[in-house]
Amino acid sequence: MTRFDPPAARRGGPVTAADEELATLARALGHPARAAIVRLLSERGECVCGQIVDVMPLAQATVSQHLKVLKDAGLVQGEVDGPRVCYCVDPKKLKRLRELVAGL
Q1: Is residue 5 assigned to a domain?
Q2: Of 90, 51, 52, 53, which is closest to residue 73 (Cα–Cα)?
Q3: DSSP assignment string, the chain
Q4: Going by DSSP bridges, is the β-strand pair 47-48/76-81 parallel, antiparallel, or unpaired?
Q5: Residue 93: inside a domain
Q6: Total domain count for the chain?
Q7: What is the average per-residue pLDDT within 67-75?
Q8: Which domain holds residue 75?
Q9: Reported confidence tier of residue 1, pLDDT bands at 50, 70, 90
Q10: Each residue of 4-46: pLDDT tens digit?
Q11: I want to staple 62 with a disulfide (CB 3.0 to 4.6 A). Which of 16, 53, 58, 73 is the partner?
């Protein structure tokens, strides 16, 4: 089975691994709340979910879901700290995102 490549992608050349990586990261940041969470974590260094909920006008469950999307994309890391999880931005992944966007 072959993968479907839209005509625009064929005209611009083959879809590369970098294109796929950028699309994954862009999807993760494709919601304004997730972009705000990444910005907050970048500014503060690290936060537990409750601290993010205190700043965001969202329910705890909604913030947790957004954090999961960001973690799955690799933009955010979570470290268990007793009964809580402390979140921070993965600086290498954020740097990689900047490189990918600059390459457009």
Answers
A1: no
A2: 90
A3: -PPP--HHHHHT-PPPHHHHHHHHHHHHT-SHHHHHHHHHHHHHS-EEHHHHHHHSSS-HHHHHHHHHHHHHHTSEEEEEETTEEEEEE-HHHHHHHHHHHHT-
A4: unpaired
A5: yes
A6: 1
A7: 96
A8: 17-102
A9: very low
A10: 555 554 556 799 999 999 999 999 999 999 999 999 999 999 9
A11: 58
What does the block give as tokens for 22? Answer: 């950028």
Tokens of 75: 């933009």
With 0-12 CB in 10 A as exposed, 13-18 as middle and 19+ as buried, what is 66?
Answer: buried
CA pair distance 26, 79, nearest whole angstrom: 24
**Is 1 inside a domain boundary?**
no
Asked whether residue 6 is assigned to any structural domain, the reply reads: no
The pTM of the full predicted model, rounded to 2 decimals, is: 0.82
Q: Domain of 26: which CATH number?
A: 1.10.10.10
